[in-house]
Amino acid sequence: MGALRPNLGTMAIEDLRTVGELTARLTDRLGRLMPAGGRLDRLTAELTAAYAGDGSPVDGSACRAVEALAQRHSQHLELHFAPDGTGSDVEMPGWPPPDPDEVRSRGAGVGAVRRLEDGTCVVALDTLDAVGPARPYLDAAAALARGSRRLVLDLRANGGGDPGTVAAVAGWLLGDRATQLSEVIYRDRRRQWWTADRPPGSAFTGDVTVLVSARTYSSAEALAYHLAARGRVTVVGEPTRGAADHVVPVHLSRRVLGLLPEAEVIDAHSGGNWEGTGVVPDVACPAADALEKALA
């Protein structure tokens, strides 16, 4: 599997006074995290050309400007400015463990399950919480959908989450046999994501429509893309945001938290991904009209 990611967590966090200092640190960290190649080179070169030596103070407006430029190359790169501090003394603490009580309090994002008179089941999935605490709710939604003629999976409000939950939902819709979804390419290793083998006859076999919007983001885009690439679903709504990278939290300073790309995702079927383009609907319409359009 190769070495682990660079250990930035032991590096002392120092405050940053200027935008030039912020972008210098940002480009350094990107060079340590992102897979080597043309995209990394273009991203760091453009940041350096635009902001090297910039003496403007670091504030929320400056962070949004640097973020907007960086997102030309990685839609998932985010910079969050916290005037009172980011609340961490280590640069790269990683993602916090899921809080099972919090997941349960929101039903793992299963917003609603409705059975319609024509045999359609509508399942709204608004988050992709960690697969462990989320599985009982996903299994309950699958049980309620069993026997439906058609499934409408509503991801219009889904901002992403756990790739393991992507695999769990995709496996329910792609069949009983394990299927490779993607290969995730890090700077120093690769990881494959697969669905799991299911009990015979437990996968959903009816027609599936997926609803998406400009709010559909990150791993929610992955779910829609993997299903669409295999011809399993019809996608209805608006193009999604186009954030395909895996990211990790990095405290660039005491007041700036970055979500920085550390890996690229390649779909095992298409050989591509949705970075920059988003998931493009088969049936385009305003997000607010997507359910009505799908049912029609």
TrEMBL record:
<dbReference type="GO" id="GO:0008236">
    <property type="term" value="F:serine-type peptidase activity"/>
</dbReference>
<protein>
    <recommendedName>
        <fullName>Tail specific protease domain-containing protein</fullName>
    </recommendedName>
</protein>
<dbReference type="InterPro" id="IPR029045">
    <property type="entry name" value="ClpP/crotonase-like_dom_sf"/>
</dbReference>
<dbReference type="InterPro" id="IPR005151">
    <property type="entry name" value="Tail-specific_protease"/>
</dbReference>
<feature type="domain" description="Tail specific protease">
    <location>
        <begin position="87"/>
        <end position="286"/>
    </location>
</feature>
<dbReference type="GO" id="GO:0006508">
    <property type="term" value="P:proteolysis"/>
</dbReference>
<dbReference type="Pfam" id="PF03572">
    <property type="entry name" value="Peptidase_S41"/>
</dbReference>
